[in-house]
């Protein structure tokens, strides 16, 4: 059964979301996981891919866009359509604005939440959707952490 983790960040900007994704991806890849990052569009996926490739001088986070000629065996795949979901689902990071219907295929699902009204409202709805699908959401409040 899938596990859903919500990471509630103190910031409201997208850049904070991408930085946290870099930290999360570093840990997940180190533990041997394959990540599928769901976005709303190819443009958003390209922006995130660029951020991951340049996450930091001591960090190497290779990624590729789904359903493209440059698709590779990189541990991070970025997609924007349900047709892009991997054959062997492992860890889904949902950065899209909707609830992915394929959540049960993944061992873990992660939501990275920033303090924007529209994202907070989407998060509340997805929290309910996870519960309705029998997935117990785990909340990780990062607002009071150094």
From TrEMBL:
The UniProt keyword set, sorted, is: Nucleotidyltransferase, Transferase
InterPro entries per the UniProt record, alphabetical: DNA_pol3_chi, PolIII_chi_sf
* Gene source species: Neptunomonas phycophila
Return the Gene3D superfamilies for the record. DNA polymerase III subunit chi
Q: What is this protein called?
A: DNA polymerase III subunit chi
- Cite the EC number: 2.7.7.7
A single GO molecular-function term is: DNA-directed DNA polymerase activity
In this record, what's one Pfam family?
DNA_pol3_chi
């Amino acid at each position: 059964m899938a596990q859903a983790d919500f990471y509630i960040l103190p910031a409201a900007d997208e850049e904070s979301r991408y930085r946290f994704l870099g930290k999360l991806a570093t840990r997940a890849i180190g533990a041997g996981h394959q990540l599928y990052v769901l976005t709303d569009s190819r443009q958003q996926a390209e922006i995130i891919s660029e951020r991951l490739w340049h996450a930091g001088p001591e960090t190497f986070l290779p990624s590729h866009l789904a359903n493209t000629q440059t698709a590779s065996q990189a541990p991070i795949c970025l997609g924007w359509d349900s047709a892009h979901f991997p054959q062997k689902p492992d860890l889904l990071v949902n950065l899209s604005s909707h609830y992915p219907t394929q959540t049960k295929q993944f061992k873990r699902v992660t939501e990275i939440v920033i303090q924007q009204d529209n994202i907070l409202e989407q998060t509340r709805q997805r929290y309910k959707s996870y519960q309705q699908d029998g997935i117990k959401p785990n909340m990780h409040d990062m607002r009071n952490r150094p």
